[in-house]
Design brief:
By secondary structure, the chain is of the alpha/beta class. The chain is built from 12 helices and 14 strands. It has 2 domains: 84 residues, Alpha-Beta Plaits (2-Layer Sandwich), CATH 3.30.70; 301 residues, Zn peptidases (Aminopeptidase, 3-Layer(aba) Sandwich). A hairpin with a 5-residue loop joins strand 5 and strand 6. The protein is globular. The N and C termini lie far apart (48 Å). Bound molecules: N~2~-sulfamoyl-L-arginine (0X9) and zinc ion.
């Protein structure tokens, strides 16, 4: 164990002191996908700190995208790597929505269901693309609890935009015919942001697509899910190195995309009260339901008391029972700091979850599953989404508490 730790340390130092490869990188320095079995949380956190691009963690199996050089360093560190063959080009068959198609889908929902749907822009991305948001609510007055769903902070996680578009479709087309949907739309305000990172998505789709791009497109790219302003960069759960896939940016909220989303959430404080009570941030892949905090492995923290931890766990497990994902505290994966859910909870006491969608590993297509799975894998979350909405009036009700 110690020898392995030492080896990890040496490997990490080697990586840290090897100059970043620029555009002159050798053609064989392209990343490939590997699986590493039998990993523990400290090992995964160490691997994350090495700057390795982590694609997924399912149980103890970790899926990583690494260059030949990084693969060697991991091997030197004592890890056994299994190569996962890349998906065939045919599997690209495009039913996934581009940014423009997503914008159009949001507009179409308003055209078709003007009584319940309104569209606007949260603000603009670094490259000045509007970030569309849909507001859904039906009959019924008074204070309605609000629920936010956002997708695609990470560019290559294309299935997530489909998830948000599926929620839009379901909660518009089912209104008036499906009793549960009608009740939720009438009694809640539902906010849906299908693409938080449009620049990254457009870049990932360019030139044949499947470029594996994760970050936004500001300079070297910032990992939006490390740029949020609660304990930003505190705990070794993000990187200060611009070339890293988890580069946290120059400051908390240095990315326009996190700024505008933050401002939107702040704007939902009305009369001193945050109207949004519940939130899901969709990612791929690993099939997980994750809750705060991500910056520490402690279950209770200054931000999360025992009842709150129990509430997060209980609702998280109940939702995971419906989609057969694995429920866990987000830091059980690996430590992250500056993530959206830590901020949502710590700043606004919004019951905030990260869902990691299909697949569990690279075998299902990794970040690029065939479009044939979209319907099945988005519908898989219908019951969990409904459950989140149904508890939005008082989430602690899930553990028998009143609000
Ligand atoms: O690392 C992330 O941002 C998320 N995984 S992904 O593979 N989609 O990039 C997980 C975030 C989990 N949240 C925390 N650990 N706080
Ligand atoms: Zn992600």
């Amino acid at each position: 164990m110690f020898r392995r730790r030492l080896a990890v340390f040496l490997a990490a130092s080697l990586l840290a002191f090897t100059p970043a490869l620029g555009s002159s990188a050798a053609p064989n320095d392209q990343p490939s996908t590997y699986e590493i079995s039998g990993t523990t949380q400290p090992q995964r956190t160490a691997i994350a700190r090495m700057g390795i691009d982590i694609h997924a963690v399912h149980g103890q199996v970790m899926t990583v995208g690494v260059t030949p050089r990084e693969a060697n360093l991991l091997k030197v560190a004592g890890y056994r790597l299994t190569l996962v063959p890349p998906p065939s080009r045919e599997e690209l068959a495009n039913k996934y929505h581009s940014y423009t198609e997503t914008q159009q889908a949001v507009k179409d929902a308003v055209t078709k269901y003007p009584a319940i749907a309104q569209a606007s822009s949260v603000g603009q991305s670094y490259e000045k693309r509007d970030i569309p948001i849909l507001r859904l609510t039906g009959a019924g007055t008074g204070d309605k609890p609000e629920v936010l769903f956002n997708c695609n902070q990470h560019a290559r996680e294309h299935l997530t935009a489909e998830m948000c578009l599926h929620i839009i479709d379901r909660y518009t087309s089912g209104y008036g015919s499906d009793a549960e949907i009608t009740k939720m739309v009438d009694s809640r305000i539902i906010w849906i942001i299908p693409m938080v990172n449009p620049d990254g998505i457009e870049y990932d789709n360019a030139g044949g697509g499947q470029r594996g791009w994760r970050k936004n497109r500001q300079g070297p790219g910032t990992d939006l899910n490390r740029n949020w302003g609660f304990k930003w960069g505190c705990c070794g759960g993000s990187s200060g190195s611009t070339s890293s896939e988890t580069y946290r940016g120059t400051a908390a909220f240095s990315a326009p995309e996190t700024q505008v989303l933050r401002d939107f959430v702040n704007s939902r404080v009305v009369g001193g009260k945050q109207r949004i009570t519940a939130h899901i941030d969709f990612h791929t892949y690993s099939e997980l339901v994750l809750w705060p905090m991500g910056y520490t492995t402690a279950d209770t923290t200054p931000e999360v008391n025992a009842d709150q931890a129990k509430t997060f766990q209980t609702l998280g497990r109940n939702m995971a029972a419906t989609n057969r994902y694995t429920p866990e505290q987000s830091s059980d994966l690996y430590i992250t700091d500056g993530s959206i859910i830590d901020w949502m909870w710590a700043t606004h006491k919004i019951w905030s979850y990260t869902f990691e969608m299909y697949p569990t590993g690279a075998a299902g297509g990794g970040f690029y599953p065939p479009a044939s799975v979209i319907d099945r894998e988005t519908a898989r979350n219908d019951a969990a989404v409904a459950m989140m909405l149904s508890y939005a009036d008082c989430v602690p009700r899930v553990i028998g508490k009143t609000c």
